[in-house]
Request: fold
Amino acid sequence: MSRTFICTFEGDSDIEHRRDRSWNWRPLQYPIGRFSWNGESDPQIREEWLGIIAGTPDELRRVTAGLSEDQLDTPYRPGGWTVRQVVHHYADDHINSYVRFKLALTEDVPTIKPYSEPAWGELPDARLGPIEPSLALLTALHQRWIAAWRALTPSDWQRAFIHPRSGATVSVERLAAQYAWHGRHHVAQIRALGQRSGWTEN
Ligand code: NI
Reply:
């Protein structure tokens, strides 16, 4: 049976979008589309996912390079997070997922602790703080994360945790697919904003 997953990130969830009636913003919110995966992978596609995850910190650095404070404080879409909040969200969210990944590797299908993405995004350091610490944190975090991914045995890819909100059992295989998507998802939001605003030519 083919399994198709949609994104279950706390803030990227279906629940948020049912609450948000502004369907006009969907192309801005999902410039590369929603996360989906048919539940299957092979060594080649896993390697592609890891390559994308490994490159995410540099992509984020590239797309935010040279932005002014005003540009960093511009929402990527009306009513959405600012570029600054998106950068801090990367650090906050990937820290949480790194911990979930490690829990899945070291415990027997543990139930993880969700967090409120919208609330974390509204904390003062996320709304107002300089982005460099989060860029540096993401770079270091992904070095550790990728080293851990690359050390997995074939059977390790099926190790999993339970997300208590959805009840879903999430394998680290699925996590790789999700984070390859997530890494490109918000970078594409920022890039699209820059293009619409005439900040960049590409
Ligand atoms: Ni996100």
Notes: The CA atoms of residues 22 and 185 lie 19 Å apart.
